[in-house]
């Protein structure tokens, strides 16, 4: 007896609609050995694809085609191109099958927030070093490790290390408050929501069976609760997705149902019911993306939902054999995907406001640098900046300068087409990384060398033409060079921060320039 195809996840109720003829679902999304000639000619054709093996390929989608007449990526072999073509056809049919709101597109539509208009380059400023924060004594013994991106609240820059959450006054660098972490931290939330952050910790470094809520506006711990499974047994969650949304803190992973707690008092709450098990969520303002897995069928979905109601706007089926490793943007939806058993990402998937595939961007075509992304942390990619319909990425280069730093360029890619808008080499023998958008222009940190300080560049989003924005002081060049090689860069409220990511040899943890 033929088994019916699995149902997609379900959530909030949808408005009733008149009966209509629905095209059949196309469930086989395996991409490696499907011959394009066997794909139905239309969404209403019968699906003929039988089980196919998951064979090897150079990349999850195969080699990408050049981005245009000025593309520099190498053209792939015929076999990989067929695999990529088959996937695009298969994905196109899969998504078209849902276009009548009876398939994967469930309800509603949304528009992208308009990109901020670019202003002309500001007058370059010779920045000064405002302050440096030393590595706390408690973190020196086992080595410093930053557990989350730098947070900002109430005029403070807030850093989470293995042993404490500490706020530094943005103007003076003096500690405003510090909340000790019992034992050792394993992970912290990627952002502060309504003044609250969350930290997973444990008695030992890898126990990771406790959850703590921190009020970063007032510098106090609210509560700490043990992470337990449905049977009340301790359930370590070091590889989990940690998110805060609607007064709830959710700890989700692939090993069981999400563990949900009320922000105010830590009371355990019932997880949301999407019809499949949620294993991650990323929220941004009034929208969020939820990752869910229907374990019985081996299906994985990405859902766009309204956080206040959990009403599904659309659902996208992740192709078989792939996994969503990171989320670069919620609106527009931009995902980093890779093979299930591979830690390296293969492609960017751009979805439109209805959850339909807009474009596939091959990471190897740049190649683009995603070395700061962690497969187990959905929001860990700090080297990419998304603004409107453009993503800005650093290239990955084998060329190194005399200091051992990779020399690279910045590329702007159109999310609607997957094509390059421009490439900015930026000159010099330096490494470059996107930092943030500021007044409609892209800020790029051009790393220091051993002999010369770095700078913050301002790039025109139209053509990538650079202008100096902040020239960092030569006097702090040595410390800057040391931190920049193993750290992250941030720009907030007119200040530029360099923060050590991890390491045993650093005496300085953070630098602030203005």
Give structural notes:
This protein has 514 residues and is mainly beta. The protein has a domain at 114-143 and 382-514: Thrombin, subunit H, CATH 2.40.10. 6% of the residues lie in helices and 37% in strands. It is built from 3 helices and 35 strands. It has helices spanning 78-96, 137-140, 477-485, and strands at 125-126, 129-134, 144-145, 151-153, 156-160, 164-169, 175-180, 184-188, 196-202, 210-215, 220-226, 241-245, 248-253, 256-262, 268-269, 277-284, 287-294, 299-305, 312-317, 322-329, 333-339, 347-351, 357-362, 385-387, 390-394, 410-414, 420-424, 432-438, 441-446, 455-459, 466-471, 487-492, 495-500, 502-503, 508-513. It has a 5-stranded mixed beta sheet, with no helix packed on it. A 4-stranded antiparallel beta sheet has the order 2-35-33-32. Strands 4-5-6-7 form a 4-stranded antiparallel beta sheet, with no helix packed on it. The longest helix has 19 residues, at 78-96. It is globular and about 60 Å long. The N and C termini lie far apart (70 Å). The relative contact order is 0.13. Residues 11-60 and 62-116 have low confidence and may be disordered.
Compact summary:
By secondary structure, this protein is mostly beta strands. 6% of the residues lie in helices and 37% in strands.
Shape: globular
> Ends: how far apart?
70 Å
Q: So how many helices? A: 3
Mean pLDDT: 80
What class, by secondary structure content?
mainly beta
- Strand residue percentage: 35-45%
CATH fold-level topology of the domain at 114-143 and 382-514: Thrombin, subunit H
Name the CATH architecture of the domain at 114-143 and 382-514: Beta Barrel
User: Radius of gyration in whole Å, from Cα?
Assistant: 24 Å
Fraction of residues in helix: under 10%
Give the C-level CATH assignment of the domain at 114-143 and 382-514: Mainly Beta
Residue ranges: pLDDT <50 for 5 or more in a row?
11-60, 62-116
- Strand order in space, largest sheet: 1-31-30-29-28
């Amino acid at each position: 007896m033929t088994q019916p195809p699995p149902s997609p996840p379900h959530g909030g109720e949808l408005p009733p609609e008149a009966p209509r003829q629905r095209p059949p679902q196309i469930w086989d999304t395996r991409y490696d050995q499907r011959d394009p000639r066997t794909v139905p000619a239309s969404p209403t054709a019968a699906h003929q694809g039988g089980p196919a093996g998951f064979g090897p390929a150079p990349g999850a989608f195969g080699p990408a085609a050049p981005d245009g007449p000025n593309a520099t990526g190498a053209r792939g072999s015929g076999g990989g191109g067929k695999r990529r073509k088959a996937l695009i056809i298969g994905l196109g049919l899969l998504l078209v099958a849902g276009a009548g709101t009876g398939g994967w597109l469930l309800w509603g539509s949304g528009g992208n927030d308009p990109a901020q208009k670019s202003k002309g380059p500001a007058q370059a400023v010779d920045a000064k070093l405002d302050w440096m924060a030393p590595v706390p004594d408690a973190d020196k013994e086992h080595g410093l490790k930053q557990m989350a991106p730098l947070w900002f609240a109430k005029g403070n820059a807030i850093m989470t290390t293995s042993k404490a959450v500490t706020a530094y006054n943005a103007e003076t660098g003096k500690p405003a408050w510090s909340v000790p972490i019992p034992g050792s931290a394993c992970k912290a939330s990627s952002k502060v929501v309504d003044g609250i952050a969350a930290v997973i910790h444990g008695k030992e470094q890898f126990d990771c069976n406790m959850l703590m809520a921190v009020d970063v506006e007032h510098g106090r711990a609210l509560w700490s609760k043990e992470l337990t499974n449905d049977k009340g047994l301790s359930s370590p969650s070091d590889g989990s997705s940690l998110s805060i949304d609607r007064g709830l803190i959710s700890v989700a992973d692939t090993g069981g149902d999400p563990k949900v707690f009320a922000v105010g008092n830590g009371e355990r709450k019932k997880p949301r019911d999407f019809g499949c098990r949620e294993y991650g969520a990323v929220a941004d303002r009034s929208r969020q993306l939820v990752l869910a897995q229907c374990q019985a069928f081996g299906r994985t979905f990405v859902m766009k939902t309204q956080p206040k109601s959990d009403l599904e706007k659309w659902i996208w089926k992740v192709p078989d054999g792939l996994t969503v490793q990171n989320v670069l943007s919620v609106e527009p939806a931009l995902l980093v995907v890779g093979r299930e058993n591979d830690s390296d990402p293969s492609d960017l998937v751009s979805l439109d406001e209805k959850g339909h595939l807009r474009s596939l961007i091959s990471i190897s075509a740049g190649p683009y640098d995603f070395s700061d992304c962690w497969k187990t942390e959905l929001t860990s990619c700090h080297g990419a900046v998304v603004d409107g319909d453009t993503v800005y990425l650093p290239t990955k280069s084998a060329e190194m300068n005399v200091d051992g730093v990779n020399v690279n360029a910045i590329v702007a890619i159109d999310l609607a087409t997957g094509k390059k808008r421009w490439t900015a080499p930026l000159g010099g023998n330096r490494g470059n990384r996107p930092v943030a958008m500021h007044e409609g222009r892209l800020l790029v940190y051009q790393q220091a060398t051993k002999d010369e300080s770095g700078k913050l560049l301002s790039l025109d989003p139209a053509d990538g033409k650079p202008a100096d924005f902040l020239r960092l002081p030569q006097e702090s060049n040595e410390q800057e060079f040391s931190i920049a090689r193993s750290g992250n860069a941030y720009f907030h409220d007119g200040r530029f921060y360099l923060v050590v990511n991890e390491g045993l040899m650093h005496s300085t943890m953070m630098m602030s320039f203005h």
